[in-house]
Amino acid sequence: MDVLKRVPVKEQEPQVRAANFEEVCLGYTKEEAMEEAARCINCKNAQCVKGCPVGIDIPAFIQQIKEGDIEKSYQVIAESSALPAVCGRVCPQESQCEGKCIRGIKGEPVSIGKLERFAADWSMENGIKPQPAAEKNGRKVAVIGSGPAGLTCAGDLARLGYDVTIFEALHEAGGVLVYGIPEFRLPKERVVAKEVENVKSLGVKIETNVVIGKAATIDELMEQEGFEAVFIGSGAGLPKFMGIPGEQANGVFSANEFLTRNNLMKSFKDYDTPISEGKKVVVVGGGNVAMDAARTALRLGAEVHIVYRRSEAELPARVEEVHHAKEEGIIFDLLQNPKEILVDENGWVKGIRIIKMELGEPDESGRRRPVEVAGSEYEIECDTVIMSLGTSPNPLISSTTDGLDINRWQCIVAQEENGQTSKPGVFAGGDAVTGAATVILAMGAGKAAAKGIHEYLAKK
Description:
With about 450 residues, this protein is of the alpha/beta class. Helix content is about 35%, strand content about 15%. It has 17 helices and 16 strands. The N and C termini lie far apart (about 55 Å). The model has no long low-confidence stretch (mean pLDDT about 95).
């Protein structure tokens, strides 16, 4: 065994997976997981833990895998994370726990994410549940949104004995885990639904098809329904557009609309789903959501281009996602930017006008600013354009809640350490506060808010 190199993880072949919605990564066997776990040197001052937004005791859970006790490994993870099978698949471990792994200094870091996924999957397959919650204390807390922030906050509060109800606007619990991330990255029935059931097993109640701000306001929940505290984890589902000519044409989607239709209407199961009959699709953007949209469109039968205004070095998407997209045949048109969407006489997309870019001086983000190259415009023929330019929070909750401060991006203002907002008893976290970010950062915010709510209610 070469301790400097990871145990490789099996994947579907690119040409096979590009035509199906089955999971790309096949995961470790028990033998492979134990071999990879043996590479961990069990640091006393574990830097990997410092890189984990939810503070999982990583050396401890890996040690249990090394010893072959997978159930105990899962229980170690479950003490800190409500969604280990999700995190093992979609967290950017390379910039968090694995990015700080000491083993990575002279070799490849331990595959922490794949080991977490293995322990969680094994436990689900063998019917293992999280440790039961504390006895109920009779105090009610409402959670708005059943995405990663809401599920984490609810699970932590339930463990502490609170009577927690999650209110979800859509008909299925899971938030972005269900409607935003494609099936081939995160299986819905096999993974997400079971993780949600684990949270419910702690005593958390979930009410779906309840739009807070319409069916009831936060003030009504607190004043009429007896909830002593509320956590807002409603995410950021309001898409951004460029404001260029032609964006109102038929065949133009936001990435979150495209992915939501695909996931909730189950086109990945060969349902007759009215998403798009696009044969040549252009995705504008370079983040993880852009990769998800592009790879989904490819699986629906399209030729797909990703248009991004910076170079590959500045792509915000995970390296693994970019690698997978390239393997599958996605075409990357880098250092290019849309100027206009071309529309036919019937109002449908027929192409997109592009201008080439070059990198200038760094902007406020520290990345070199893209600058247009004069006289470099050209056209790409296409019938579908998917805009993946980020999202912001829907203002419905903030506009119907008295005393709740928001910033100029419509994000709720909350304290980072505990999620407390300007309104007493109301806490917030995840994308509703930060704007679009990662699943694990939303979970970290939900965990911090649960602690904040517990401390707040202890003083009442």
